[in-house]
Design a protein that fits this description.
The complex is a heterodimer.
Chain A (H helix, E strand, L loop, with lengths): L1 E7 L5 E12 L2 E14 L2 H10 L4 H9 L12
Antiparallel strand pairs in A: 1-2, 2-3
Chain B lengths: L16 H4 L25 E2 L5 E2 L8 H12 L8 H12 L2 H4 L10 E6 L2 E4 L7 E13 L2 E12 L7 E4 L11 E10 L7 E5 L5 E5 L12 E15 L1
Antiparallel strand pairs in B: 1-2, 3-5, 4-7, 5-6, 6-11, 8-9, 8-11, 9-10
Classes of the chains: A alpha+beta, B alpha+beta.
Chain lengths: 78, 238
């Protein structure tokens, strides 16, 4: 079994990571189980979560689009 | 479609005279004999207007000759639009379930189910909460609508301070809309506001506010170490 990680909805404000597991059946990939998915926001907290949870090279790909600074401020009153 | 009556006056099947020569197989023309067919005579073959071919002798292959005879009896083949074959191929192979999940899939409808990992943190101090055996998140996405469900059990608050936040949702909600949900919980302190409703903000943070007191939120002092939420449901647009 192997895992495929995908980045979708990658903008300067967010990124969504999906993980799918596959097995090979007679040379053809067959998806196993449900898709795991998580959205990240380009805030201070969200950037920390990406650093801690998203492996390379996906992390660098996200950060390349997000830039050096957060674009979203999470207010405590939301 | 009318069916050619190939029975003779005695109720027996008769061969088409044009196929077997002017005298008929047994020399007795049937009541509906065909006289305009020009196909090469075939021995023992019956062809009706319905296109069925009846062999007179077992094991013989009359396919080619039978077609010629059928053409003679029925005229030209029906005209089938040339694009039917291509359309059927596109439509039928495109209507497989995996393509429905893609933006370019059948009908253009994005619909799928999956899992997410609900994670608690404190808004003032995130902490490192410890989870019990129950830590389950599921979601269904239909177009731009996302339904999330979760059940989360803690065994330790792990130093969380401040407002309790549940994160890890599969999509970030569309800004400008308020998305409330429902849930049940156990092992809260007596200081917890009641009743409490969960809501999710545009940053994907699920917080828990008093139903009629928007400034009152569930925070770390309102829950015990073995706090347990179950049946969390929030439906939101993204």
């Amino acid at each position: 079994m192997y895992e495929i990680i995908s980045i979708k909805s990658l903008t300067t404000g967010q990124a969504v990571i999906t993980k799918d597991s596959y097995i090979d059946v007679n040379g053809t990939p067959a998806k196993v189980g449900d898709t795991w998915q998580r959205a990240y926001v380009n805030s201070t907290r969200g950037r920390g979560e990406v650093e801690a949870e998203v492996p390379e090279p996906y992390r660098s790909a996200i950060m390349a689009v997000w830039g050096a600074e957060p674009t979203v401020v999470e207010s405590a009153e939301d | 479609m009318p069916i050619l009556n190939l029975r003779n006056t005695a109720g027996e099947f008769e061969p088409i005279p044009a196929m077997i020569g002017p005298q008929g197989l047994q020399g007795v023309p049937g009541p509906n004999e065909i006289t305009t067919a020009t196909a090469t005579p075939l021995s023992g073959v019956l062809v009706g207007k319905d296109g069925y071919v009846k062999e007179g002798e077992a094991g013989e292959d009359f396919a080619a000759a039978a077609h010629a005879a059928q053409h003679a009896a029925n005229g030209a083949d029906p005209i089938i639009p040339a694009d039917i074959g291509a359309a059927a191929a596109d439509d039928l192979t495109g209507h497989i379930s995996t393509l429905v999940t893609g933006a370019a899939g059948a009908h253009g409808l994005k619909q799928y189910h999956g899992t997410w990992t609900p994670s608690f943190y404190g808004l003032t101090t995130a902490g490192s909460p410890v989870y019990g055996a129950d830590r389950i998140g599921e979601f269904s996405i239909i177009g731009n609508l996302c339904l999330i469900k979760a059940r989360v059990q803690l065994t330790s608050k792990g130093g969380m301070v401040g407002r309790l936040v549940l994160s890890g949702v599969p999509e970030l909600p569309r800004p400008g809309l308020v998305h409330n949900g429902t849930f049940g919980y156990v092992n809260a302190e007596s200081t917890a506001p009641t009743p409490v409703l969960p809501y999710i903000d545009a940053a994907g943070r699920i917080m828990f506010s008093g139903q009629s007191q928007a400034d009152v939120f569930l925070n770390d002092t309102n829950i015990k170490d073995n706090f347990f939420i179950t049946g969390l449901n929030i439906l939101y647009f993204f």
